[in-house]
Amino acid sequence: MGYEGGLPHRLTLEGRERLSITGVEHVERFDETGIVLVTAAGVLEIRGEELHIDKLSLDGGELWVEGQIDSLCYEEQERNRGFWQRLFG
Fold it and tell me: What CATH number does the domain located at 10-78 have?
């Protein structure tokens, strides 16, 4: 999957406690056990415990997360379809 003209996407994981991400376009939701965000490479779900967003700059497309990071998972993103169309197919 390409960047489709968006911001360059990069993940940097330090141990399992600190994560920096570039190419962030939008944060869908977040709480202490999960963060879902739209990146230049698709929808990314971060799961863990005691997660918190240390810094967020949507203008620069950067996000820093701290906490116990258990998993990172990409989902396919359908950019041309709206939320309800994706939800109800």
Answer: 2.60.40.2000
What span, in angstroms and rounded, lies between the C-alpha atoms of 27 and 63? 9
The model's pLDDT over 5-38, given as tens digits with 9 standing for 90+, comes to 567 899 999 999 999 999 999 999 999 999 999 9
Domain ranges of the chain: 10-78
Instruction: Tell me how far the alpha carbon of residue 75 is from its chain's centroid.
Output: 10
Closest by CA position to 23, among listed 46, 51, 43, 52 = 43
Q: Give burial (CB, 10 Å; 0-12/13-18/19+) of 72.
A: middle
Find out whether 25 and 38 touch, Cβ atoms under 8 Å: yes
Model's pTM, two decimal places? 0.77
Determine the number of helices (DSSP H) and then strands (DSSP E) in the chain: 1, 6
How many angstroms separate the CA atoms of 73 and 11, rounded?
12
